Amino acid sequence: MGKTAFLFPGQGAQYAGMGADFCERYEEAAAVYDAASEAVGLDIRELCFEENNRLDQTEYTQIAMIATELAMLKVVESKGIRADIAAGLSLGEYGALAACGVMKDEDIFRVVRKRGIYMQNAYPSGGGMTAVLGMDGDKVAAICEKTAHESGRIVSVANYNCPGQIVITGEKSAVDMAAKELTEEGAKRCIPLKVSGPFHSLLLKEASAELARELESAKTKDPVIPYVTNVTAEYVTGSDGIKDLLVRQIISPVRWQQSIELMVSDGVDNFIEIGPGKTLTGFMKKIAPGVRSYHIGSIEEMEDYPEVTNA
Predict the structure, then answer these.
(1) Residue 196 catalytic?
(2) pTM for the model
């Protein structure tokens, strides 16, 4: 018998209307949106469901995404779908924490709201991120290191998403220099990303320090199921060190491909992405094409899942 993993997406998958169907039909989901609104003093339903210009701003995106992921998770669990392991990409790691019972929902909402603000304000201009297609991760990392050394500026790997897709981050001038060399060295394409900051780079040290202070008042418990952390692509089975990993995550590369490979090697053969967009399901097809991979971002998709109990 194989194992099931819940996966939670990060920033970038948000859209106006996400989660509205769950909120309308299920009390469990509506309660999550209300709890999030109360915890952070914003109307989260309005933020998620109505067209607005805040949803794509980091300080609002993060809380909107996490509220939606947790609302969907509660309904998925009420339908009898269970996971043995969880993981989330960047911001999505907080969805995994919820699935593992590590932190109370209110604490997650409060911390994520502050995380979004800290990350948006940490480096307001001069940073950039670029997706590098068609090149091995180790080679990308080596060229970033070389560029950083030669230029005296910050550029590094932000995400190991899947084979052939690596994201680099840092000072825009250094990211552009690295992208030029990566293209010359054989990368198929280098595509600048529309983001509001150089995420997962040392330029966000201040945000990392502020998050550490915010996490002090949050209580963590041992996970009821293990989760895989972005920072090391290893299992977390106890509460010791969780806060430190969340602090380091802001300035460390997201080892997503390595995280999926770890789970697959341990017999996970059923992956369910819970949340807006199908980013992680797309990565799965490139990392481990032989395993079952589902996306649940709407009631229709949930009801199409083979093991769902429609009671």
Answers:
(1) no
(2) 0.96
